[in-house]
């Protein structure tokens, strides 16, 4: 799963603050978000749960998709997440990360 382009969404909690990003190393990026290593928006708002991701063939494709999603209104982003993850489960657990506490 590493070194492939992914578009992803992390959230603070169900229906909480969300952030859309792109990366070529999903595991490393998830670790950075979970440990609060990325200064700025996600750190300030406690956006740490991986709630959606999608793999792409090329980084240009992933960047184009990320830019589109970032322009969407919040309801569309919520529908995207809930289409595959209706309970906003932390998908990072399925990738081998420890579960976050309910308060995190």
Description:
- It is built from 4 helices and 3 strands; from the N terminus they run ββααβαα.
- It has 104 residues and is of the alpha+beta class.
- The chain has a single domain (2-95), classed as GIY-YIG endonuclease (3-Layer(aba) Sandwich), CATH 3.40.1440.
- The protein has a 3-stranded antiparallel sheet.
- A hairpin with a 6-residue loop joins strand 1 and strand 2.
- The longest helix is centred in the middle third of the chain and has 13 residues, at 59-71.
- The termini are far apart.
- Principal-axes shape call: globular
CATH architecture: 3-Layer(aba) Sandwich
Uncertain stretches: none
Strand proportion: 15-25%
Average pLDDT number: 93
Secondary structure class reads: alpha+beta
Our measurement of the CA-to-CA distance between the termini, rounded to an integer number of angstroms, reads 26 Å
Percent of residues in helical segments?
Answer: 25-40%
What does the largest sheet look like?
3 strands, antiparallel
Radius of gyration: 13 Å
What's this entry about, in short?
This protein is an alpha+beta fold. It contains 4 helices and 3 strands; from the N terminus they run E-E-H-H-E-H-H.
Notable traits:
alpha+beta, globular, 3-stranded antiparallel β-sheet, 3 strands, 104 residues
Give the topology, please.
Blueprint: E1 2-11, E2 18-25, H1 26-34, H2 41-44, E3 49-55, H3 59-71, H4 74-84
Antiparallel strand pairs: 1-2, 1-3
């Amino acid at each position: 799963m590493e070194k492939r382009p992914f578009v992803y969404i992390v959230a603070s909690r169900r229906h909480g603050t969300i952030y859309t990003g792109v990366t070529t190393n999903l595991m490393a990026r998830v670790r950075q978000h979970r440990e609060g290593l990325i200064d700025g928006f996600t750190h300030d708002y406690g956006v740490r749960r991986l709630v959606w991701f999608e793999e792409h063939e090329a980084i240009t494709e992933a960047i184009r998709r990320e830019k589109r999603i970032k322009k969407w209104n919040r309801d569309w982003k919520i529908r995207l997440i809930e289409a595959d993850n209706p309970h906003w489960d932390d998908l990072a657990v399925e990738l081998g990360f420890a579960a976050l506490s309910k308060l995190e």
